[in-house]
Amino acid sequence: MNQKESYQNFMQQLFNGNQLFDKPQPLEGVRILEVCYVVLGPAACDYLAEFGAEVIKFEGQRGEQMRFVTPFAYFWKNLSPGLQEQNHNKYWVGMHLGHPRAKEIFLDLVKRSDVVVDNLTPGRMKEWGLSYPELREINPRIIQLHVSGYGSWGPWTGRASYDAVAQSMGALSPITGFEGRGPIKSGVWIADWITALMCANAILGALNYRERTGEGQFIDYSQVENVIRFLDWTWLYTSKTGQDRPRSGNRDLAVCPSDLFDCADGWVALAAFSRIEFEGLCNAMNAPELFSNYPEPTDRLEDKAAREVLRVVGEWTATKNAAEVEDLACRHGFAASRVLRTEDAYSAELLKMRGSVQTYEDALYGEMTEPCYPPQLSETPGRLKWAARPIGMDNEYVLTKILGLSLEQVDELAKKGVIFKWNPQVPSHCPPPEWDGKRGVKYP
Amino acid sequence: MAEQKNAQASGYDLEEPDLEQDLLSDQNIVGMAINREYARWAHQDTNPDEVCGKPEALDDTLVIDASHGSFAGLFASSILSEMGARVIRIEPPGGDLARKMSPYGMMIKDTGLGYLVEARNKTHITLDVTKPEGSKLFKRLMKHADILIETFKPGLLDRLGVGYRDLREVNPSLVYCAIHTYGQFGEASEKFAGQPDYDIVNQARGIIMSITGEPELDPEVSNQYKKPLRQGNWMGWYVGGAWAAFGIMNAMLYRRKTGKGQFIDCSPPEGLLAISNYAMQYYHMSGNQMPRAGNYDYAVFPYTYVRCKDGYTFISGFTDPNWTALCEILNRPDLKGMFPTIKERLNPENQPKIQHEIEKFTTQYTSEEILQFITEYSKRADKKGTVATGRLETPTEVLQRDHWRERQTFIKVNDPYYGEVLVQNSTFKAMTRTPGRIKWVCRPVGADNEYIYQKYLGLGPTKLGQLKEQGVI
Fold it and tell me: Using the 8-state DSSP alphabet, how is residue B290 labeled?
């Protein structure tokens, strides 16, 4: 019997993607109040929303900034792709918490919620009377997370941060780029996404602790500290040598060979560090002398040796297509892959089968195909249910079904301007142009 | 009176300091806070000096991290260990390959710099799982574990008889997390099962690399640099590890409610794909793929790094009011006329031009002077919008900043074996009830064999000696 095949079959049965919606969600019953805008805060809540948390998002009258941040000023059915990327499965309420009546409503919701997340200026929630001591007073189980660039105290607290500032202040961009060239910003808002991920992890740690003890807590999280945390050996290296980590392009200074090499039809990423992996690579290259010169991984890391090894490997890959190198890697036990582009991931049946890319039909926007957050959980997988929504689209649903107000009371709040909906003059606030006034409305 | 009582009940009972030295230390706490009372409260309740002695979120959890040659596995277990989980690292008798991954091969005793950062709070044992006796011991250990993390080639442990289907027999509530580039099921997992997991390949398959690098559309950039670029750190591994921890804590929460374990399949490239901005959404909507933009940004600009007298600094001014503000700071009203709306500013052809115009100004000043201009402007009553800046800090500079020193963003551990080691602190240190922490930084290969094998499997020194002779530990 072929063991490997049977492992594959076993795994495929375990994950059976067709039954996605028949499986439970790990965060079912966890209600999160999202007082966030742009990417970082909304992404932290989005990760949790795709694993079953019920996220209620509060938005100001001018609208989330991401309603206006979109590549080449491109909008699709009035929707900004920049808004869509980190807003799934959420309930959208148009309400500004600075309003006294809004504050009361918010506090009533806090009594029925598990987590409050904000990425406003540190202290803003306190100005509104919504900081942790006040929330804890009415719900001791509440977990509140605040995230900002520099944290809630310290000489730089209160300084504004953006993703690119966190990348620069935390030294990620300064170590990214080709040798002898300038620093390069990530192609994505990476400092937002990775900080959001660690915020979600902090919340999950706190939820696990609350499950044990019933106790909530406050979490203060700093974006720049998070970037610093992700920079592996950068700091220890500087503290030991007094030198700054140089930009080294795609070459990994701590693993050799590990680089992006030119090949006949593009590029191939390749790595082979252990003795046996490197021997495999050298066999594939038919270069046994390279292996006998540098069998020991650490010997290859010395700068001169590393450049020599990378040169020889690069000369070899230049004669091959990426697919050939990939095949040889599988056979000889080293790592190699072409660089995948968006189109490759979008059209990969494999990723859809795995659930890391999902297609669903949104009531407002129709068919959507997007990444769903990993990892793949066999019993409680993540899932996409619906897309981002116009401002205030779920006011009625949240205030009646969750808070227990009558529709008349909700109307009254709207008349007083405590809650609000999209401005018809601003297309990216609005439902799609052809919307019939009914589709996608959760209540009434 | 009622107000005072309220303040006390809410925890805001901290008074303004009056002594001079207290004022100085108070200034280091309140910084530029909009609400000083809040900053003082936050400092009091998340004071890094008072972390030890507070409870730990996951100290009821036993993690076995059998990862090999992967900082994704190591970072996942670091996250759990900072939150208090007891982590047992299993290395092969020669030590984990990851211990050798160090810049220019720099070692401190038996261990490289990368590993010294991600060994925090972990006990270290050795075990050769490929030997029959080794896999038997592995299975026995797994009876005690809540979580397993492994990064072997897909199916390897299964072939040794200690894969998920074997382990769940002996431990049905086990949370089993496998991390590998190609995942554990599907065509790629099968086809590429012979390949090990490396950061560079994770980044290459994670889409993000295809859109990071010098700007493809800028005619001034030479073609040799127009290629994908990795993020300078081990971003593929660190993001993969953070997602693994995310999956694990979700699974643990579910297990606490239901008693059920499960299998977690973590593929780091999928972790990067999922955070590649709007790349896929935009492709779905428009059929277009994003080009590499370098320090430009085709969704928000100016939002860029510019050269200045002493390096580089960040400058933003995207929305119409903020762009107006930036043009006022640069004293260039003509720029506003040239690029009046976001349509012009998001045009890839215009962005190098705008960049050059901004740099004409910024190259005359230091990053500190630019910060001063912007700060002064932000205080003007007639300001038109907000402009942000931030220096591109070198690691040396970061290590010297008061802000990070006050917050203990780094800690220096005096390890009995490795000596003085400076590492980045837990970023969960500001959880009020269960702050994350570093208790020790690393252990030599096999340093906890005696303790762990005695504690969990009852193996004394004689038996351990035999296992050592057989090459099992």
Answer: P
Return the residue matching tokens 């200690």. Answer: B162
Query: Is residue B43 within 8 Å of A153, Cβ to Cβ?
Result: yes
Q: Tokens at residue A14, please? A: 């375990």
Which residues lie below 8 Å from residue B399, measured CB to CB, with a gap of 6+? A235, A238, A239, B410, B422
Identity of the residue in B201, B211, B260 whose CB atom sits nearest the CB atom of A187:
B211
Query: Is-cis flag, bond preceding A375, omega within 30?
Result: yes
Please indicate if any CB of chain B lies within 8 Å of the CB of A295.
no
Tokens linked to B186: 């599907």
How many contacts does A have with B, using Cβ atoms within 8 A? 640
Please say if A344 is a catalytic residue: no
Most A CBs within 10 A among B149, B246, B283, hence the mutation to make, goes to B246
Residues 6+ apart with CB under 8 A from B226: B213, B214, B216, B292
* Cα gap A62→A113, rounded to integer Å: 26
Q: Which residues contact A159 (CB under 8 A, 6 or more apart)?
A: A149, A150, B31, B32
User: What token pair was written down for B142?
Assistant: 């797994």
Closest CA to B432 of A129, A227, A131: A131
pLDDT tens per residue, chain A (444 residues)? 444 458 999 999 999 866 899 999 999 999 999 999 999 999 999 999 999 999 999 999 999 999 999 999 999 999 999 999 999 999 999 999 999 999 999 999 999 999 999 999 999 999 999 999 999 999 999 999 999 999 999 999 998 889 999 999 999 999 999 999 999 999 999 999 999 999 999 999 999 999 999 999 999 999 999 999 999 999 999 999 999 999 999 999 999 999 999 999 999 999 999 999 999 999 999 999 999 999 999 999 999 999 999 999 999 999 999 999 999 999 999 999 999 999 999 999 999 999 999 999 999 999 999 999 999 999 999 999 999 999 999 999 999 999 999 999 999 999 999 999 999 999 999 999 999 999 999 999
Which of chain B's residues have a Cβ under 8 Å away from the Cβ of A374?
243, 247, 266-267, 270-271, 274
Given a contact cutoff of 8 angstroms between Cβ atoms, the answer to whether B45 and A131 are in contact is no
Taking an 8 Å cut-off on Cβ atoms, the answer to whether A240 and B29 are in contact is no
Cα distance between residue A99 and residue A418, in whole Å? 7
